[in-house]
Specification:
With about 575 residues, the chain is of the alpha+beta class. The protein folds into four domains: about 240 residues, Heat Shock Protein 90, CATH 3.30.565; about 70 residues, Helicase, Ruva Protein, domain 3 (Orthogonal Bundle), CATH 1.10.8; about 150 residues, Ribosomal Protein S5, domain 2, CATH 3.30.230; about 55 residues. About 35% of the residues lie in helices and about 20% in strands. The strands form three sheets. The chain has an eight-stranded mixed beta sheet. Strand 14 and strand 15 form a beta hairpin.
């Protein structure tokens, strides 16, 4: 007798509703950690160093401290590393440590409009969460502020279901993190305050263009005021084994690599600005009006936005058909839409640009000269401009080497492009970045370089491009590529073309000098023969012949110098 086939039980609205529940942001990013740059052990190591160094640099610069940072990667297992980053910054107050290092979407930079490296309050907490996921170990923070007599050491993990920090250790102790010392027998360097963060994780260390080594080298270029110390302590196998027949791993004693600072002045501080009306969308405008402490609509427009004068605010209210004395929190949706349309019809000044902190042309050249061996350097810093109401500024530096002078720059290879956003190197996703598109879109043949169609030019050259903005439009949460906004690409193109024109002048001058040198050598070769011929024609003696030969050489030298 045939058995009856069981039919799948159909869901009801009640059964489906019973399974609905909140999703923690920590749980989301735990399952989708590739969005944050933790998609492979190799990239996870780079992302962790990047987030820790970015935090250290931001903290030092905001406190007015010339940054000095030590980065150590120590292998403690076959595929396990301990990442330790120490800085001489202002330190972190005890109450804020757990939330800063073990809670996603927590920080001080998201709601303010000013240039900074970090923006979302995710990075360092996500690095600790990745370490917790792959090794089960806590993130350890050792920090001391200037006002404290002793330091505090805290070990934290993330409760991913609640997105809350869990404190595993909290002790006061003497301020002794692992400082850099170039002499292993010398007393360790000490700072009076600072922070050391240490994270254990599953990772892979590989040298190359997408490595931690390259990231830190580019950090030293784009932050010429930074003193950076770095070392990798790998393990080697002890072939003798031990009593159990297992292979023993012994750490290798690796020296520190130091990137000296090229300048001893901090970049100009960036100031927080208010949102510009032309960059605010309708939903944000409605929320800002509801939250405004102003008593009238006119006051809300002038106090909560930048570049809105009393006259402009009055004109906006008239155009929208609203009373300037209306309560901003009570404006209905339909009235808000009329106000939004009126704002976009009014011509306003561009937002202030003191919220940006560009590197500067001199500092760009100093950074390139410090790390890139070349014969010609130039840099261009464009004037600030705006996209979607957000101020931004573009800078481009160029270093060109004679073929064969720099082993890393081959004459028949594509040029090297280094991309930066808010002084942070961008190593991955170069093909989808506005900077790469702008470089490839310039006609470099007109500036003396060969360039395959639709590709980067060829030659022994490095281009660094930097975008400074209060809000960089990254293409993903991992912050590896800049979106293709036409305003950004246009500014990059103008800066690249100016660098190209300067390069063309240099190459033409060098070409003329080489041609003059060739002609000089050709003439020098025949001067003795010319003097000998004059001797025979004019019946000169040997002394007169030598005098003529000497005069001809001196005349050639003077002509060559004038050229």
């Amino acid at each position: 007798m045939a058995t009856k086939k069981k039919t799948a039980r159909l869901e009801t609205a009640e059964s489906m509703g019973a399974r609905q529940r909140d999703i923690s942001v920590s749980e989301f990013f735990l399952k989708n950690r590739h969005l944050l740059g933790f998609d492979s052990p190799r990239k996870a190591l780079l992302t962790t160093v990047k987030e820790a160094v970015d935090n250290s640099l931001d903290a030092c610069e905001e406190a007015g401290i010339l940054p000095e940072i030590s980065v150590e990667l120590r292998q403690i297992g076959e595929s396990r590393f301990r990442v330790s980053v120490t800085d001489n910054g202002p330190g972190v107050v005890r109450a804020q440590v757990p939330r800063i290092f073990a809670k996603l979407l927590y920080g001080s930079k998201f709601h303010r409009l000013r240039m900074s490296r970090g923006q979302q309050g995710i990075g360092i907490s996500a690095a600790g969460m990745y370490g917790q996921l792959t090794t089960g170990q806590a993130t350890r923070i050792h920090s001391k502020t200037k006002a404290q007599k002793s330091a505090h050491r805290i070990a934290v993990q993330i409760d991913t279901k609640a997105n809350k920090p869990v404190i595993l250790e909290d002790v006061e102790l003497e301020w002794r993190p692992s400082y850099y010392s170039d002499d292993p027998h010398a007393e360790p360097k000490t700072y009076s305050h600072g922070t050391c963060v240490s994270i254990e994780m599953e990772a892979t260390y590989v040298r190359g263009r997408l490595s931690v080594d390259e990231f830190l080298k580019q950090c030293a270029i784009v932050n010429p005021h930074l003193q950076l110390h770095y070392r990798v302590v790998l393990q080697k196998k002890n072939n003798n084994g031990n009593d159990n027949g297992q292979v023993e791993l012994i750490p290798e004693d690796e020296p520190w690599t130091t990137y000296e600072r090229a300048v001893k002045t901090l970049p100009p501080p960036s100031r927080e600005i208010k949102p510009h009306p032309h960059g605010v969308e309708l939903g944000i405008l409605i929320q800002m009006l509801k939250d405004s402490p102003a008593r009238t609509l006119k006051q809300a427009l002038t106090q909560d936005f930048s570049r809105v004068s009393d006259k402009a605010a009055h004109y906006i209210c008239e155009t929208a058909g609203l009373s300037a004395r209306a309560n901003p929190s009570r404006i209905a949706h339909q009235e808000s839409e009329a106000l939004f349309k009126a704002i976009n019809t009014v011509k306003l000044m561009r937002p202030p640009t003191d919220c940006l902190s560009p590197i500067g042309e001199e500092q760009i050249i100093a950074g390139l000269q410090k790390e890139i061996v070349a014969d010609f350097y130039t840099a261009v810093t464009r004037e600030p401009t705006v996209y979607r109401g957000n101020p931004f500024q573009v800078e481009v530096g160029l270093a060109y080497a004679k073929p064969g002078d720099n082993e890393d720059l081959a004459g028949d290879d594509p040029i090297r492009v280094m991309r930066f956003a808010n002084r942070v190197p961008l190593l991955y996703m170069g093909g989808g970045c506005a900077i790469t598109k702008a470089v490839g879109g310039v006609n470099w043949k007109s500036y003396g370089l060969s360039q395959p169609k639709g590709s980067l030019p060829l030659g022994p050259m490095v281009i660094m491009a930097h975008m400074a903005s209060v809000w960089v439009p990254f293409t993903s949460e991992s912050k590896e590529a800049i979106a293709h906004y036409q305003e950004i690409i246009r500014e990059l193109t103008f800066a690249l073309q100016e660098c190209g024109r300067r390069l063309s002048v240099y190459l033409n001058k060098r070409k003329r000098a080489a041609e003059a040198e060739r002609k000089k050598g050709y003439i020098e070769k025949y001067i003795p023969h010319l003097a000998l011929g004059l001797k025979d024609v004019l019946q000169f003696n040997d002394k007169q012949k030598e005098r003529v030969e000497k005069d001809l050489k001196e005349m050639l030298e003077r002509t060559h110098l004038e050229v």
